[in-house]
Design a protein that fits this description.
Low-confidence stretches of chain A: 241-251
Radius of gyration of chain B: 31 Å
Distance between the termini of chain B: 31 Å
Shape of chain A: globular
Number of domains of chain B: 2
Low-confidence stretches of chain B: 84-88
CATH class of chain A: Alpha Beta
Largest interface: A-B, 30 and 25 residues
Oligomer: heterodimer
Number of strands of chain B: 10
Distance between the termini of chain A: 33 Å
Structural class of chain B: alpha+beta
Helix content of chain A: 25-40%
Number of domains of chain A: 1
CATH topology of chain A: Rossmann fold
Number of helices of chain A: 6
Shape of chain B: elongated
Number of helices of chain B: 13
Strand order of the largest sheet of chain A: 6-7-8-3-9-10
CATH superfamily of chain A: P-loop containing nucleotide triphosphate hydrolases
Number of strands of chain A: 10
Largest sheet of chain B: 10 strands, mixed
Radius of gyration of chain A: 18 Å
Mean pLDDT of chain B: 82
């Protein structure tokens, strides 16, 4: 138990060259274990979002190793990265990022499209995920017909619909008032207790009570790293799903 | 992949439906290009069908010898059209006819020697009538119908002529001048026959039978001198010997012309060559003009796709964040432009045939629909969709997900 899902060593992200050179991340090390709920805090421009983007394979580091499930994926092709993104990573954004032209149900089912599930399975899974977040009646609403809290809950449903290894949340409560913030945080807490691993960036110190580990960043490096829950007591999924690899899509 | 195919199809459909007016106008651009191509192909198709049906009516046992220049096809066809003295270039002679008819398999052969000259009688003068010098065998080869009188015969060929329907009206102000006389080069000829009016003016001999004066080739040669033969027609006894006989004629003429190949021996479909090569040039030109409008339509597709990509930058970012690869995005936008151009193509086919039927009601051509035309058009629309869709699709696929997510409309 307590297996390491992500191991990052010597991660560096540089912008510019010569005099204009600046580092968003500098020789950054981080190990994430299954069941952790990590909150990353720090002043603006300390590299929080860059870190999240690199973990989420939306961005590439200048140098360093990134091992996900015992596989170094820092330098694999962007097509393979996209496939890993679809299967193993769930994103939650500050501005929800739902597609306005698609109903909530199809928005939630979107990651499953790129995994290659058939339409009926996709919609069934998406519908179940929505029910978990009390949006069962809103399936055919469009994002702009929902409130901010409801949209963010739909976005969380989208993040977990493909059963990812890790959920990345970039200030998920940033656009919400404090009451809906807590509703959303309660939902995150619930999925964490089911054994999901969450990495969340936030500016709000009062939310750190939800976390099992709080990391403070400064100038692209870790300032403080406090674990509030012992590794032994991290919630674990009831059965660690061995993903079916038999039907691997060929490219 | 098959799963994604259906998803892309559905996405493209939604996107096109959402921007109904915009998509319709874009499709219309393609449709106009396709319609003009359909119109041109179906009309030229009907004309070449007319020519081949003409060929069928003269029979498949015919061999035609024509003088040829050493220039290539297109130049010589254009030269024939533009130069007034194209008659002068012939290298065939009356004697060639005689030697051809002596070949075993050839049943009958007749020369066609055309000359333009003045004909007069007591009342009227026709300044530039076409005079056909030939032999009596011509009448046995050509299925010419007579309105009045008879054909030339061996007995009367020295002093008699046969004239066309219209020429008879011009010259004699009557449709039945049989027995009356006309003057040509100071000599009097008796009209022994008048041809039936011919409605389809196209034939492989390039003769307008309504305005013709037919007389014996030797008499014509004696009168105007240095007469040249434009064409020699020969009939073969057995159609299976067509090719071998044509070869024999080729060999014979080569000997007589001291080795110069300044003539062509043709049979079957090749007889219609001058007319159909001219048709090919014209339809080619028209097709180029039509494809210009298709290119304009294609640019319209590209323009709209670029707008669509820009509008949906945020969506592209989201799709990439949840796991779409660049290739998925590329396919999504390629499908959209492909479907748009295929819809335009279908609209164009319908529009084109409506126009073609409309054109057929005011011209003698019936629109000609063949699966080849449909195939060409289908391939063209797919080509347009791919060519003009690939750049916007690549642009969409190469967008950076982080920047795209920040992008708001």
């Amino acid at each position: 138990m307590n297996e390491e899902i992500i191991k990052i060593t010597g991660l560096t992200k540089r912008y510019g060259y010569g005099d204009a050179e600046s580092f968003a991340l500098k020789d950054f090390d981080l190990t994430i274990k299954r069941g952790e709920f990590i909150m990353i805090m720090g002043p603006s421009g300390c590299g929080k979002t860059t870190l999240l983007n690199i973990i989420g394979l939306l961005d590439r580091a200048t140098s360093g190793e990134y091992i996900l499930n015992d596989r170094n994926i820092a330098n694999i092709s962007s097509t393979r990265q996209a496939r890993i993104r679809a299967k193993k990573i769930g994103f939650i954004f500050q501005n929800y990022n739902l597609i306005d032209d698609l109903p909530i149900l199809e928005n939630v089912a979107l990651p499953l499209v790129y995994i290659g599930q058939p339409r009926t399975v996709r919609l069934k899974n998406a519908s179940e995920a929505l029910k978990r977040f009390h949006l069962g009646e809103k399936e055919y609403y469009y994002p702009w017909q929902l409130s901010g809290g409801q949209q963010q809950r739909a976005a969380i449903a989208r993040a977990i619909v493909s059963n990812p290894e890790i959920i990345l949340a970039d200030e998920p409560t940033g656009n919400l008032d404090s009451r809906t913030s807590y509703i959303v945080m309660d939902e995150l807490k619930k999925i964490h207790e089911e054994g999901n691993t969450i990495v969340m960036v936030t500016h709000n110190p009062s939310l750190t009570t939800y976390a099992t580990r709080v990391i403070n960043m400064l100038d692209g490096q870790i300032d403080t790293d406090i674990k509030t829950v012992d590794d032994k007591n991290l919630p674990q999924p009831i059965s660690v799903k061995k993903k079916k690899r038999s039907k691997r899509r060929k490219r | 992949m098959a799963m994604l195919f259906r998803t892309h199809l559905k996405l493209a459909r939604t996107s096109i439906k959402e921007n109904r007016t915009r998509s319709f106008l874009t499709c219309l651009g393609i449709a106009i290009g396709i319609a003009s191509i359909i119109l041109i192909l179906s009309l030229t198709g009907s004309i070449s069908k007319l020519i081949s049906s003409e060929l069928e009516s003269i029979g498949s046992d015919l061999i035609v010898v024509r003088p040829s220049s050493t220039k290539d096809g297109i130049t010589s066809v254009i030269e024939e059209l533009t130069s007034s003295n194209s008659f002068e270039r012939s290298t065939l002679k009356v004697e060639d006819t005689k030697s051809i008819s002596e070949i075993e398999q050839v049943t009958v052969a007749a020369p066609i020697a055309l000359s333009v000259n003045t004909i007069t009688n007591e009342d009227n003068t026709v300044a530039s009538a076409t005079i056909l010098g030939t032999t009596t065998d011509f009448f046995t080869m050509e299925p010419l119908a007579f309105r009045y009188g008879t054909a030339l015969s061996e007995k009367n060929k020295e002093t008699s002529v046969v004239i066309g329907h219209m020429l008879s009206l011009y010259l004699f102000n009557t449709s039945n001048p049989v027995g009356r006389t006309l003057n040509f080069h100071g000599q009097r000829f008796i009209v022994v026959g008048v041809l039936e009016e011919v409605t389809d003016s196209i034939n492989f001999n390039n003769i307008d039978y309504n305005n013709i004066l037919i007389m014996d080739v030797n008499v014509l040669n004696d009168l105007i001198g240095s007469l040249q033969v434009q064409q020699i027609n020969a009939k073969v006894a057995n159609t299976s010997e067509l090719a071998s006989t044509a070869e024999a004629i080729q060999k014979l003429l080569l000997e007589q012309h001291s080795g110069d190949t300044n003539f062509t021996v043709s049979y079957g479909d090749a007889i219609a060559h001058p007319a159909s090569s001219l048709l090919n040039i014209i339809s080619g030109m028209l097709a180029i003009v039509a494809s210009v409008s298709l290119v304009v339509g294609g640019i319209g597709v590209m323009n709209i796709m670029l707008v669509s990509v820009a509008e949906r930058t945020h969506e592209i970012g989201i799709r990439k964040a949840v796991g779409a690869s660049s290739r998925n995005i590329l396919m999504q936008f390629m499908f959209e432009s492909l479907i748009m151009s295929i819809l335009g193509g279908i609209m164009g086919i319908i529009l084109g045939y409506i126009l073609a039927f409309f054109a057929s009601s005011i011209t003698p051509f019936a629109p000609y629909i063949s699966w080849q035309i449909l195939l060409i058009v289908f391939a063209t629309t797919i080509g347009v969709g791919v060519i003009f869709g690939i750049y916007p699709a690549i642009k969409a696929a190469s967008k950076n997900p982080i920047d795209s997510l920040k992008h708001y409309r």
